[in-house]
Every structure is written in structure tokens, then in C-alpha cells.
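Good morning N.,

You mentioned wanting to compare the apo and holo forms, so I went ahead and generated the holo version with glycine. This is what I fed in:
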Amino acid sequence: MTVERVALRVGEDESVIWLGRGLLEQAADRLVSPSGRFLLVSSRSARPATDRLRPVLASSLILDVEIEDSEQEKTLDAVSEIADRALEKGVRRDDAFVAVGGGVVTDLVGFAAAILLRGVAWNAVPTTVAGMADAAIGGKTGVDHRLGKNLLGAFHFPRSIVVDPSAAATLSDRDYRSGLVEAFKGVWIRNAKASARAETLLPAIRSRDEEALLELVSDAVRIKADIVSSDPKESGERRLLNFGHTLGHAFEAAGGYRELRHGEAVAWGISAALTISRDRAGLSEDEAARVREVLARLGPFPEPVRSAEVLRPLLSRDKKRSASGLAGVLLEEIGRARVEENVPEAEWLAAAAHARLPPALQTRSNPT
Ligand code: GLY
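and this is what came out, ligand included:
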């Protein structure tokens, strides 16, 4: 088995990402706990992966709990519940969590680890494509607040992240495809060659070839590790990773976090950002069409709510807001993005109203 090691450096510390097919069964030497004791928190939907991992941790487990993996469950109450269970088991500062699941689980467990006993170590084993390519990497942890997504949180980097593409085998087709949007986002903002490679691999990726998926995820992870190493707390370059997220978050909230998967909302957000990129950042029609075509081939995605009345209050609560508009990430060309400050709200709303993906391709495959 080929295993790739990618190091994300944060000051003196390292957050190490291991990538390989079949790595779950070989995770013992790669998960880190200073005491040698682990607290396993996994999602119900990740049970097949957890069943593969549990024997590896066996006698070093002091806690083994399952939690829900839906955005509605990403609350302070859920963090408090994890802390209760860990404290009841006598968790110590030198123990470490292992989070197995999608972005909700890694966000929750990472945040619990950040605040429990003023900080214990944690490891991530992402089982969704979005988790492998984005959410589990880079130390953002936290929960939602009734006034918005991810409003409470902390940067707390996992010591180790084990990425095994075979963990994604049990995902529904819809979850799998929507997660791919975050992986493509990574290559679009930073690496034209990786983007072209991913386009070539797309038929294999869509038919769930694990080697092809691993190639794309590995490119996205290396790009993200590089960006986060240079800007761990998102004061500059890391903001590029928010491509598609200004409207994406609003679309997701407008659907009550039920109608659209995160990646689907980001796909529509990217489609809208391409229009603004053409007007403000010189993105060519051809390149905008190429990105839209990939998104359409990842779809079909349910339509977002586009009404200005619904989206305006959601945009007004965005963390990226300033007095004169909202920051967004624009694509200058495939492989090069920049942050544009203060794009007027009216421009976002107009782009939201007209965001489109190629219709012929939208109906080519069946939604599941
Ligand atoms: N998901 C974007 C970031 O981690 O910065």
C-alpha cells in the first residue's frame, strides 16, 4: 500500500495528514495520544469505517460513543454531551480524541478537545469526501449558533488526520458528489495543472474509483496544507478557501440546512461567484464555462432559494461583512484566485438570482 504523508506546520507543531487506500486498518501507528489512551467519538453514518478502525485502537480506548452527523446537531449542547462523557470516564490532559465521521463530527469533537481541560489532543478520521478534502484539515472547529453557522469555535489543529478513500464507499451518491465540490474548489483556487488532471479523472471519480478519488483529494489536501501553513488563522491567504462560500452559506441557511448539502450550496455559490469574477477579476467566459461544466457534471444539484428577501438578512449576518459590502473570493483564472473586499450586496443578490449550471448536463444523470 502506498501511503502519502503531508505535513501542515503550525508554529512549532505539526498536523500530519496520512493518505492511502486501506489505511483505516493501519492507523495504529498514525493516531497520536501522549498518554496512549484514546476517546473515540464517531457518527452513526460512519459505522462501517468505525468498525474497521475499532480493533486497531482496542485496548487503548477509554470511551467509545456514537453521535449524530447532521448540521442540526452541531450545537453547544452536543459539545457539552461529549465533554460529560469524557469527564465521566476520567479523561486526562494527555489523552486524545479520535473523531470518525463527516465535517459535523470533526467540528464538534475538535471543539470539545479545544476546551476540555483547556485543551487535549485530537485526531481526525474523515469519512466524507468534503471531510477528507477540506473540513477535517486545518484546525477549524466549532458549532453553529441560532444566528448563524460556525459562529462559536476555536482553531485547534488535529495531531493526525487519516484519509482512507475507501471510507467513502458507503456514502450515498448525493453525499459523495456534493463533497467533490470542496475538493475541486481547492484545485480551482490554486493549481491549474491539478485542475486539468481532476477534469480528466472526473469520469472515474464519478464512478467511484478510489484511486482516482485519492488523486484529487491528495491534490486538494496538499494545496490546503500549504495555504493553512502560511496563514493558520485566516488573516490572509486562507480566505481563498472560502471560494463559493459567501453565497454558499446563505443558500445553505435559506434551505434550513436540510434542502441543500453544504457542497451543493457551495456549487451554486461558486457559479454565482464566477459571474462576479468575470465582471471584476477578468475571468474569461471560457474558463467560467469550464468550471460550470465540471459543477454540472458533479450534479444535478437541487435549486437554491434565490429570493433577495430571503438571502439579504442571511448575507447581513455573514462574518465577511463590512460597512460597504461583503468580501468574496473571485477567480482570475483557473488556478488563481483573489479576495475582493466590499462587493456590494446588490451584486451578490443579482448573481444569486441568475446563478446557473449548464441545463443539458444538469439532466444527464439521475439525482439520488
Ligand atoms: N474550509 C475552509 C477553511 O478551512 O479555511
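The chain is about 45% helix and 20% strand.

Happy to go through it together on a call whenever suits you.

Best,
F.
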